[in-house]
Amino acid sequence: MLRPDRGIERVYLHRAPVDMRKQMDGLSLLARDVIGRDPLSGSLFVFVNARRNKLKILLWERNGFVVWYKRLERDYFHWPRSRTESVLSLTGEQLNWLLDGYDVWRMKPHEVLHFSVLS
Questions:
Q1: Rounded distance, CA 55 to CA 68, Å?
Q2: What number is the average pLDDT over the span 44-59?
Q3: Higher confidence at residue 112 or residue 98?
Q4: Which of 27, 39, 45, 79 has its CA 20 to 30 A from that of 60?
């Protein structure tokens, strides 16, 4: 399973929805111009779509960008709405909780889904 390391110290959560058609270049511009951080710093930048069922994470790794993409089948990512900041900082552990479906601010998980491709 591909996951960001839980020990990553700098994770920036962009609260406003982002067009998921944006790729590495577009996301790196958001990291620089909107979040106000250097996209080449080794920090993780986390973006979500308007429905909050798709999430992208941008990371610069030595010689190129890496983008993680996750789409939820039946639920949505618990995204902070009542905050005033446009960007929040998380720990690597909190980011992994978010990817696992937890509401990081209330520690409530998603329902586990079980699918089968066989009829």
A1: 8
A2: 95
A3: 98
A4: 79
